[in-house]
Amino acid sequence: MRTARSVVFVVFCAGAAAAIGVPALRAQRSVSGENHSRDVRTVAEKKIAPRVLSEIYRRRGEARQNAFAPDRGALKLDRHGRVLVDVRADVKPALEKKMKALGGVIVSSSAPSRSIVTWMPLTMLERLAADPAVATIDLAAH
Q1: What are phi and psi of 96, to 5 degrees?
Q2: Using H for helix, E for strand and C for coil, what is the string for 4-28?
Q3: Residue 64: its pLDDT value, please?
Q4: pLDDT for the residue 111
Q5: CB count, 10 Å around CB of 96?
Q6: Are 137 and 44 in contact (CB under 8 A)?
Q7: The pLDDT value given to residue 91
């Protein structure tokens, strides 16, 4: 009789521990999952300024779930859908050639400043940012 009560007590305690522990683990996983989804940006996306990246997402129709910067109005694009950006990178002919191949028009470049100011199609900025030579892409001062 005594062992039967001991077995029932152990089973009861195991059930209570599971009832408390399982929901707590699920809650922790869902919280870490939410934080993870905010940090899912690719290496290329992390190189692009938040305002520019938000505009890229807005044009794709993904603005709600991927808003990184407060909306301060649409970016100024030229008639070809290009935005004036300052690309911080090692200025090399190969990178300038890639920018032109992606539809960019180089306005100025400075090797000592590690800067290339260019009109780039908004849709091509992620491909440009994926280049290992590129450090950051931000809006250029007009």
Answers
A1: -65, -40
A2: HHHHHHHHHHHHHHHHHHHHHHHHH
A3: 56
A4: 94
A5: 17
A6: no
A7: 94
- Mapped onto helix, strand or coil, the DSSP state of residue 47 is helix
Report how far residue 30's alpha carbon sits from residue 20's, in angstroms, rounded to the nearest whole number.
16
Chain position carrying tokens 């590129």: 134
The pLDDT score that the predictor gives to residue 70 is: 55
Low-confidence ranges of the chain (pLDDT < 50): 31-37
> For the purposes of burial, counting CB atoms within 10 Å of the CB of 60, is it exposed (0-12), middle (13-18) or buried (19 or more)?
exposed
SS3 assignment, position 101:
helix
Which residue type is seen at 57? Y
Q: What is the DSSP string of 56-78?
A: HHHHHT-TTTT--S---SPPPB-
Instruction: Say which DSSP state 90 is in.
Output: -
pLDDT (0 to 100) of residue 25: 54
99-112: pLDDT as tens digits: 999 999 999 999 99
Cβ-Cβ contacts under 8 Å for 124 (sequence gap 6 or more): 102, 103, 104
Question: Coil, strand or helix: which one is 41?
Answer: coil
24/123 Cα distance (integer angstroms): 43
> Would you say 124 and 81 are in contact if contact means Cβ atoms under 8 Å apart?
no
